[in-house]
Amino acid sequence: MFLDTLARHCHNQPDKVAIEFSDGIPVTYSQLADTVNRTGNYLISLGVEPGDRVAVQLPKCMPFIYLHLAATQIGAIFLPLNPAYPMAELRYFLADSGARLLFAERLKRSVIESILPELSTLETPVFIDPADSWESRVAAYSPKRSAPLPADPDQTAMMLYTSGTTSRPKGAQITHGNLTANIKALHEAWGWREDDVLLHVLPIFHVHGLVVALHGALHAGATAYVLPTFDAAAALELLCSRRFSVFMGVPTMHRRLYQLANGRRVDLSHLRLMTSGSDRLPNDLFFGYQETFNVTLLERYGMTETGMNLSNPLHGERRVGSVGLPLPGVSARIVDPATDSPLPDGEVGELQIKGAHVCKGYWQQPEKTAAAFSADGWLRTGDMGARAPDGYYTLKGRAKDLIISGGLNVYPPEVELALMEHPAVAACAVIGCPDEEWGEQVVAAIIPRDGAAADEAEICAFCRERLAHYKAPRRVVFLYEFPANALGKIQKAKLREEYCG
Ligand code: MCA
Known about the structure:
alpha/beta; 9-stranded mixed sheet; 5-stranded antiparallel sheet; globular; binds methylmalonyl-coenzyme A
């Protein structure tokens, strides 16, 4: 399993740098093992037992990584939370998951203490300053692992919240077996090597940054050099330094790097792998990258519930506009979403996925879990696509109203719920409008209450207080009525046509 491989690297190449933060000191594989084991023993001393949810809402820092590896190693369930979640979202995730422990930044203390009385399962939260030495905090605990690594592939290792288009966010239960299957598939498909050096710029509270990038590097026994936040200028300078062999980003990051080059040719072909994911890679960016950086981006397709599913090949044609072929061990099919029956090549239908990497379901949501799978066990991705006769898949839109902004998923119902709390809003509908930098931009269409004064800036600010910033509308349009079908359902496609401009 993934953790066994990591333990092996710690043993076999103890002095090699595993992780180096740009603002920190390099951490070797043996130091990583040592601190992760101490952290595991510290968690046990706090009463954490296998199956307990350990929530972590910290910026990108080494303590986050230690807590992640330690919690999964002792059989607990790691729950990473976006530091941008405001109080209302945080309260929901902690209550729904029944988290026992929460590690958060010291500066969040008053917010978190204010919601504590409503969280019956949460014991005293632990507040830390990510800049403080984590090693000193756990120094008193033994550097020896006190229990064997989890051996049951069906045991949940992590829980990641993903929203539905009709419901509050659901916790996808990602098992040790899922993580192992996915990381092995990617290792093989992308030819990870021990001498790889990854420039890591992604957030680590998502599958992309945590599993695909960080686990990928650690599973290979490679080195991850980490920027705590994405800074295009710093990233481009580092990429030019010839020190790195692998880079992973979302299209918004690639767009910023490309724009920074500003028409100059900057040869990055010494990198053996530059990937793009979490959102569709626009064709102009694919070609722009070839022209400017002498690099053909490798586009791949994944989702929180599965990790990675499809990928363009490392060797062979990286097809523009396509998300490539199924990864080793992954089965994919295109079906009629109404009947789940497979469609012939070339026809557009729902993409469905099967494999050992697919999560076992949603936390305490048996109905939603059942609804997510076909009768014969395929995961319904909600993405529409087609398969070419040579096996390449192309996505053709979404069955659901999901918006993707800067590689982050925004579910309109969550935003609509927040908007409905505003006293001036009588009805609302949230749509995604195409945007060059972000892929899509969140736009709210609102019918104001009679006589109520509503103002675009104030409504946007109102949402920012209730939702993570990236979910808040960037633009508001005020309407007298919505385009609706015969059943009275708002026709969002019409709204997009008229108001995306
Ligand atoms: C930041 N802002 C955003 C976003 N990010 N607004 C909309 N969408 C976003 N994604 C806001 C900031 O709050 C700020 O608002 C304003 O935009 C400008 O901030 P800026 O500093 O320019 O942005 P940034 O902090 O540089 O962030 C841009 C980013 C970031 C680096 C592209 O969004 C990012 O790291 N995206 C990657 C997401 C990711 O890893 N997704 C993987 C999940 P204001 O100024 O008003 O405060 S999907 C996944 O894992 C699946 C499995 C998969 O397939 O990969």
